[in-house]
TrEMBL record:
It is an enzyme of class 1 (oxidoreductase). InterPro entries: IsoCit/isopropylmalate_DH_CS, IsoPropMal-DH-like_dom, Isopropylmalate_DH. Catalyzes the oxidation of 3-carboxy-2-hydroxy-4-methylpentanoate (3-isopropylmalate) to 3-carboxy-4-methyl-2-oxopentanoate. The product decarboxylates to 4-methyl-2 oxopentanoate. This is 3-isopropylmalate dehydrogenase. Pathway: Amino-acid biosynthesis; L-leucine biosynthesis; L-leucine from 3-methyl-2-oxobutanoate: step 3/4. It comes from Durio zibethinus. Residues 45-394 form the Isopropylmalate dehydrogenase-like domain. It holds the Pfam family Iso_dh. GO terms for molecular function: 3-isopropylmalate dehydrogenase activity; magnesium ion binding; NAD binding. Its cofactor is Mn(2+); Mg(2+).
Length: 406
């Protein structure tokens, strides 16, 4: 089994090994005239969770891309598709059936589309698709969520920011994923001393939760441009004051990384004022959710941003950061590139298959170079395509020598 924080083996000693080693080949490839040069076949099991809305559309495309990129690198996948979110609610009455969680836990990696939709919006908390996603993240113990936002030169004109502001942006949001206000207790509904109805949640972080995400962020920053910005609300919130104290303490283990701190309101503003100032951002669950959506728009569209969610052991969870986009679901309008790039992250961080990952990344660049655009990233002079056609073009690029060469 593969994947997780060590960026891929299932058990980890070092906090974050950014140089994963590919899983061992299980058997030699078929004997043929080309046997001397053929790569041995490596096999992985992938759990696919298409979910709701545009989820099934983008997963179907990403699966074919993953399959082809893998086969060109001697990798064979077995896919198991399981219900999740609203689709699971309709089928089984719960948003994360036990069978889905255990299939995910047994897999080498998980690729998820998106969950949610109008149909289930008024459900009680425990019957919301979103609750299923949080249960999945908790069940897989994937506490580190990596959300890279890179402005590709081909898409500078798709950004809503001015060209000189967006050009060259390359940042990584490291979001704590299994703690904070999303999971803190007490939480719920009740009545206050005046007898008025209330809803309440708790933002809480323990030392080990902050220390482990901080170490991962420092490791990532060390391998990028050596700058880590910790985003909090330490001028107001005790949980943030403690967050800042622990991140500062962990910094002593990483003298080569330059640590800065920023309040979240300022960070939200700086992201649109001068995003190039950021290299790696580390932040809590809720601030990471919001800031990564904001960062996605710098790159042109939320339909471009992939993510990897990793734990200390066990398989990683890979998903685009966007939701189920009910407004465009079923219309073949979704941009599948965030999910395709999540498949690349699955290969790289989840399985340690860097070459296959590079094939996908290069194929995406080549497809954009050839002028294909879904509606969300369209600009004049390019060719407007739907989700399926975008997928077919990426497949062509994966199959061409370009993908191996760029
Ligand atoms: N990880 C997830 O599964 C996830 C993430 C966010 C939201 N959600 C859920 O999705 C549902 C809709 O939420 P929302 O509307 O706030 O956010 P959303 O991300 O689904 O959509 C926001 C906007 O971005 C557009 N968009 C999103 N992905 C796109 C893509 N790949 N290509 C082109 N356009 C795209 C949508 O059309 C919409 O206009 C809700 O039920 C929400 O809870 C799920
Ligand atoms: C759907 C929701 C539970 C989820 C989150 O808040 O984490 C989403 O916004 C995301 O970013 O994946």
């Amino acid at each position: 089994m593969a994947a997780s924080i060590q960026l891929h083996a299932r058990s980890i000693k070092a906090p974050f090994n950014l140089k994963p080693v590919a899983k061992q080949s299980l058997k030699p490839s078929r004997i043929s005239c080309a046997a001397a040069v053929a790569k041995p076949t490596t096999r992985y099991s992938i759990t696919l969770l298409p979910g709701d809305g545009i989820g099934p559309e983008v997963i179907s495309v990403a699966k074919t891309v993953l399959k082809l990129a893998g086969s060109l690198e001697g990798i064979e996948f077995s896919f198991q598709q399981m219900p999740m979110g609203g689709a699971a609610l309709d089928l089984t009455g719960v948003p994360l059936p036990e069978e889905t969680l255990s299939a995910a836990q047994r897999a080498d990696a998980i690729l998820l589309g998106a969950i949610g939709g109008y149909k289930w919006d008024k459900n009680e908390k425990h019957l919301k698709p979103e609750t299923g996603l949080l249960q999945l993240r908790e069940g897989l113990k994937v506490f580190a969520n990596l959300r890279p936002a890179t402005v590709l030169p081909q898409l500078v004109d798709s950004s809503t920011l001015k060209k000189d502001v967006a050009e060259g942006v390359d940042l990584m949001v490291v979001r704590e994923l299994t703690g904070g206000i999303y999971f803190g207790k007490p939480r719920g509904f009740g009545t206050n001393e005046k007898g008025e109805d209330i809803g309440f949640n708790t933002e809480v972080y323990a030392t080990h939760e902050i220390d482990r995400i901080a170490r991962i962020a420092f490791e990532i920053a060390r391998k990028r441009r050596g700058q880590l910005c910790s985003v909090d609300k330490a001028n107001v919130l005790e949980a943030s004051m403690f967050w800042r104290k622990r991140v500062t303490a962990i910094a002593s283990e990483y003298p080569d990384v330059e640590l800065s701190h920023m309040y979240v309101d300022n960070a939200a503003m700086q992201l649109v004022r001068y995003p190039k100032q950021f290299d790696t951002i580390v932040t809590n669950n809720i601030f990471g959710d919001i800031l990564s959506d904001e960062a996605s728009m710098i790159t042109g569209s939320i339909g471009m941003l992939p993510s990897a969610s990793l734990g200390e052991s066990g398989p990683g969870l890979f998903e685009p950061i966007h939701g189920s986009a009910p407004d465009i679901a079923g219309q073949d309008k979704a941009n599948p590139l965030a999910t395709i790039l999540s498949a690349a992250m699955l290969l790289k961080y989840g399985l340690g298959e860097a070459n296959a990952a590079k094939r996908i990344e290069n194929a995406v660049l080549d497809t954009l170079n050839r002028g294909f655009r879904t509606g969300d990233i369209y600009s004049a002079g390019n060719k407007l395509v739907g989700c399926k056609e975008m997928g077919e073009e990426v497949l062509k690029s994966v199959g061409s020598s370009v993908a191996a060469a760029i």
